[in-house]
Design a protein that fits this description.
Elements: E1 15-16, H1 17-24, H2 28-36, E2 43-44, E3 50-52, H3 54-68, H4 73-106
Antiparallel strand pairs: 1-3, 2-3
Amino acid sequence: MMSKLPFDDEHAPLYSMSQVASMLNVQQAYLRRLDQHDVVTPSRSEGGQRRYSRRDIMTVQHVTRMADEGMTLIAIRRILELEHEVARLREQLAAAYARLEQREHDS
């Protein structure tokens, strides 16, 4: 079996700020602002450079769409927190349903 490569992992911090800025056609200062406001927090290289994963890049795209609709970074950060909470609750609900189904199957 082949080992997983870093680019197979959507959370692997593979992209520099300049690559992401170029990819998404945004300013590097915008990416720094997202980091400063804890909206999108990329990993850091050993040298302290911001490194973005594919997941981070998708989040920046999502944030940019909301900002283009006139939302503030504070509002966007709260929306992201709520989206994460909903996802976590959905996972818990799915696990609870699976346990219920298993109990019904076992009895």
